[in-house]
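Apologies for my clumsy wording, but could you write out the amino acids of a protein and the C-alpha cells describing how it folds?
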Amino acid sequence: MKPNHEITENVPSEMRALVLDGVGFEHLAVRKVPVPSPGAHQMLARVEAAGICTSLIKLIEQGPDHNLMHGWDVRRFPAILGDEGVVTVVCVGEALRNQYRLGESYVVQPAVDHEPVNHRERYRNAGQGVNKVAVGYTLAGHLAEYILIPEEVLNSGCLLPVPLPHPPFAHAAMSEPLSCVVSAQEHHMHLIQSSPLAAREAVKGLKRGGVTVIIGAGAMGRMHVDLAFPYRPRAIVVADFLEARLQVVRKLFQARAAETGIALHTVHAASSSVEKVVAELTNLLGADDVIVAVGSKKAIEGAQNMVGRGAVLNLFGGLKKGDDIVGIDASAVHYKEINVTGSSGGSPWDIARTLQLIVAKEIDAGAHITRVGDLEHAIELLKLVKAQQIDGKAVVYPHRRTQNIHSVDSWSGADERSYLQASEI
C-alpha cells in the first residue's frame, strides 16, 4: 500500500481471487493475485460475503464476446469475477478522506452506468461509445478477499451504505439479486380513479388488495413472493410444475401469510389449472398482477389468460436469443387496457430500498440462501448452478476457510456468527 493511505487492518500484498483467463470453465481458477493499491480517488475494501450469480456462467462461456466486456481480452488481462457482495472499507484514497471512513460497510451496484475511467486501452476502440461497465466483468469483482472500488463506481453513485443496525453479511450480499425483483415490481403501474369523474392516478407497484400471480417458484420466483408481501395484496398465487418448489414456498411463507392476512395459494401446474384458481379467486375478473418468473415462451403466452382489466403482465424471466419472439394477445392489451412490462437488473436506488427492507425485516434475505462455502468452492457452486442442482442462492465468505459446502434451508444472523467463529482448516 502507498504510505499516504490510511489502512484499518494489516492488508497483505497478495489475496485469493476467482480469476477468468480464457473462455470456458477450464480457464477459471482461484489463485493468488496482488492486492490492488488504490489511487487517490479510489478505495480498497475487504469482501465480507459474496453471492454466486447465474449470470457469471454466461461470462465464463463467452469471455471477451460478452456484451459487458466490450472486447476486454481476459486471456491478456484476466478478470476477477463476482457481481454480488458486501464490503468493508479498509483503505481510503487521499482525495476521498473527507467523504468515506475506514470500517464503513457498503454494497456495490454492479451495473455501473459510466464510461471507462481506467484501462481504456483494454476496451474495444479504447472504450469509445461505452457508457456502461460492470463489477465482476471489466471492473474487479467480489469473489476475492479484497476489492478495488474505482472511480467508475464512486462517480455513478453505485456504492450504497449498509444501514444500521447492520444485517448479517450474507443478507446484505443478497441485496443485489433481491434488488432486481424490487426493480421489476416497481415497474408495475396501475391507473386508479377514485370516482368516474376523477382524474386517473398512476400508482406503481403491485396492487394493494389485489391478486398477484407468480409463475415459477424457483429462487427468483420465491424472491418475488417475499417482496410481494409489503404491497399487501389480498392473495398471492404461486404456480410451478415441481411440487418440491411449492413445498419450499409454503414452508417459507405460509405462516407469514397467515399473520398478514394474505391468502397464499400454491398450484401444482402439472396437475391443476392455475387459470381456474385465479378465476375462482377473482370471480372470473382476472388477476391484477401476473409475474412470469421463468424463461418460458409457453408460460408467457399462457399467463395472458389470467390478467384482468387494467392488470400488469411482467415478463421477468428472460428468453434465449432466437427464441424470444412470443405471441401477444392484442385484444387483451386493447380492451382490457393491460400493461406489459419487464426489467433488466436494478439501479442503485433498488439496492438502497432492498437494504431498507432487509433491516426493517420486511423481507428475509436469509430465506433464499441454500448453500454456504468459501472462495475455493466458487467454481463447484457455479457448476452446480449451471446444472440446475441448486434451488436457491449460494453465498461464500472469502476470508473463511472450510472443507465442505454447507447445504442449508435458510441462513440467519446466528448461523453466520457461528460459522465465522468456527475454527478454520
Remarks:
- The chain has a mean pLDDT of 94.
- Residues 243-260 form the longest helix (18 residues).
- The chain has two domains: 6-178+347-421, 188-341.
- The radius of gyration is 22 Å.
